[in-house]
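Researcher: I'd like a candidate sequence for this fold, 216 residues long. If you have to choose between options at a position, lean toward the conservative one.
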């Protein structure tokens, strides 16, 4: 459970706090499309990704999916119900074979009740979530589909020029917030302009600066 020490929400916990956290936590093994929790379900635990990828997504009444976030190793998800006592605001689903740590809310509540000063980490986390939401809203307003696609490709690549898109075209479209056809058209334009090159699901960024300008 050493991974938990690197989670920002728990970074001020003492060694004893981490021991209590680890004793209460369980490991879950998942295969592709396993649902960790469904939208609207009762919330009683949060999760940390050990390996693999977890999609956080909302679905419309007609079954269309909008991916809210992509969770990878070390990422925390499912914590909102701990703070507001409400059900799940989105579905969490494994995109591939994955492992996650399940942490019951009760142990976290007990730790924070014993040491209220640790709640500053909660304030910091919630502030980050609000900032991320503000940024996503600004992107949806100021960036077109091509700009949002460029931004998400850069996020998936990180500091690497060679990268793989670890999700399907439908899932990428949900993350961008557009139809698959429009996202594919945006990627085709980047290929045509020579900004990226593609070999199946493998991509290489050739002109990062152009992508950065298009995504801002």
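Model: Candidate sequence:
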């Amino acid at each position: 459970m050493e991974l938990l020490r690197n989670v920002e929400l728990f970074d001020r916990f003492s060694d004893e706090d981490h021991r209590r956290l680890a004793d209460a936590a369980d490991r879950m093994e998942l295969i592709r499309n396993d649902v960790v929790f469904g939208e609207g379900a009762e919330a009683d635990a949060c999760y940390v990704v050990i390996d693999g990828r977890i999609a956080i997504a909302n679905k419309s009444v007609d079954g269309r999916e909008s991916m809210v976030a992509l969770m990878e190793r070390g990422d925390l998800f499912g914590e909102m119900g701990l703070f507001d006592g409400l059900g799940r605001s989105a579905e969490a689903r494994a995109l591939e074979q994955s492992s996650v740590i399940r942490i019951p809310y009760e142990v976290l509540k007990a730790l924070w009740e014993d040491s209220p000063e640790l709640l500053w980490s909660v304030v910091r986390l919630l502030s980050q979530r609000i900032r991320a939401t503000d940024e996503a809203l600004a992107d949806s307003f100021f960036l077109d589909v091509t700009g949002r696609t460029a931004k998400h490709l850069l996020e998936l690549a990180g500091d690497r020029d060679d990268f793989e898109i670890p999700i399907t075209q439908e899932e990428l479209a949900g993350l961008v917030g557009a139809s698959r056809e429009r996202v594919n058209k945006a990627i085709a334009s980047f290929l045509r302009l020579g900004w990226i090159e593609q070999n199946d699901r493998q991509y290489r960024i050739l002109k990062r600066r152009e992508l950065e300008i298009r995504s801002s």
